[in-house]
């Protein structure tokens, strides 16, 4: 009784607190965050304000969206703000401003995909928030970095949304999700082996050979029905880049009292017992074997379904998880965030000084631990030095490489070079062609011991400077430059995010696309040497799924 009264006390306190829900695509009722994060929060907080970064970003542009959020914080002075960062939609300075105008506001971010984003993304953005929700058990990564106040949600679900509907099972096996090559290969394999598979989701038109299995887009309401109507819900754990990662499928299917057959990934074992609460397969042959087995053994399947349902409802229900999180926050309150300050340990040198030789630099290097190469043509973030030092200290590597914007007076930041992505997608030669010295920071000892190699790199005579072993990536754009190395379109699209497309979307929403100089400046830019611009616009127009989402403002 004592614990029950204590719990009720916290529930009553939270009802009177104000929550600003600012997750990416917060208002999109056709997306998971709305159902799995917003609706459970709405049951906890009587006063909840919604700000959708995606909608406002595509409707008004990045600068205006950040200004709108700051104005909303000034007006509402919320007790909590819950973010769900995607990439660079917020300026780092925005988080600092929020703390200045509303010091008592507690900021929280929901981080996803830490199994591949922690080392170049999460560990740096985590410095700007009070608390963190992580969607898989990467707690040891945070602990090792000294990051506290982490709540491990797993891929929780809203059990009021995803629930049993007692519908007839009309599909033997179904898969829903956006198309990619790995998923297409699996679907083709199943079809070729006479498995009655049905596919739902976006992007499958790119694979016309799978048309006979494709039943098209699903609304969120129909998605819950599909899970309930499927004897087997297929879960493929590989993401768009082929890396295995935690997916929502076993959580969603179990919440609906339905059966899921999941591609093996060790991370699921942190949340389910294999073979009693979920079933996983190791390869395509194993998948066929288990499909045939469980379709013939309904009694065994139902036992696993019941166990999975009990586990999700007890341990992976987002409303319960949120209540536990905010109980802890009520006890601890807001926490001071201190970005490590180490700039006095950095030597900033112009490229011209390096060519004077190492002996000329040794005196300047005394008392310094890190070297940055400066460039008068670049605009540097005030956080660049501190975050890159932090990256070197945490990674124990010798080179730090951040992302950068390509800036034009008429087009603003119209390209974004994503270094880590480019490193993994491009060959060594083309990757190094796109690296600029200003985005790098070196440890002093490495700089001295590899001085000739660095000189060769700056002179563009050597393309072996950056390796997996010696470089840590910071996937935050920490500088702007006005020069771009133009390579062929296929290389550019793999290395750069075409930010000019986002600007075109916002101009469309503001009904200023035709009578604005921006699209015409893009055309001129494309004609005089950057032809990839028009090719990117054409490719976007052809991708109807992506285009429609952007044009709708989410």
Structural summary, described in words:
The structure is a single chain. With 554 residues, the chain is α/β, with parallel strands linked by helices. The model is unreliable at 1-5 (pLDDT under 50). 46% of the residues lie in helices and 18% in strands.
* Unreliable parts: 1-5
- By secondary-structure content and strand pairing, the structural class works out as alpha/beta
The main β sheet shows up as:
8 strands, mixed
- Averaged pLDDT, please? 90
Count of extended strands: 19
Q: What is the straight-line distance between the termini?
A: 46 Å
Percent of sequence in beta strands: 15-25%
Keywords for this entry:
46% helix, six-stranded parallel sheet, alpha/beta, 25 helices, eight-stranded mixed sheet, single chain, disordered N terminus, 554 residues
Give the structure's gist in a few sentences:
This protein is α/β, with parallel strands linked by helices and 554 residues long. The chain contains 25 helices and 19 strands.
Which secondary structure elements does this structure contain, and how are they paired or packed?
Elements: H1 2-15, E1 18-23, H2 32-44, E2 47-50, H3 53-60, H4 62-76, E3 80-84, H5 92-101, E4 106-111, H6 114-125, E5 131-134, H7 139-145, E6 150-152, E7 171-176, H8 181-192, E8 197-200, H9 220-229, E9 230-235, H10 249-255, E10 260-263, E11 279-281, H11 284-296, H12 298-315, H13 318-332, E12 346-350, H14 351-354, H15 358-365, E13 370-374, E14 378-380, H16 384-395, E15 399-408, E16 412-417, H17 419-425, H18 428-434, E17 440-443, H19 444-449, H20 451-458, E18 471-481, H21 489-495, E19 496-497, H22 499-509, H23 517-527, H24 532-542, H25 544-552
Parallel strand pairs: 1-2, 1-3, 3-4, 4-5, 5-6, 7-8, 7-9, 9-10, 10-11, 12-13, 15-18
Antiparallel strand pairs: 13-17, 14-18, 15-16, 15-17, 16-19
Helix pairs in contact: 2-13, 3-4, 3-22, 4-5, 10-12
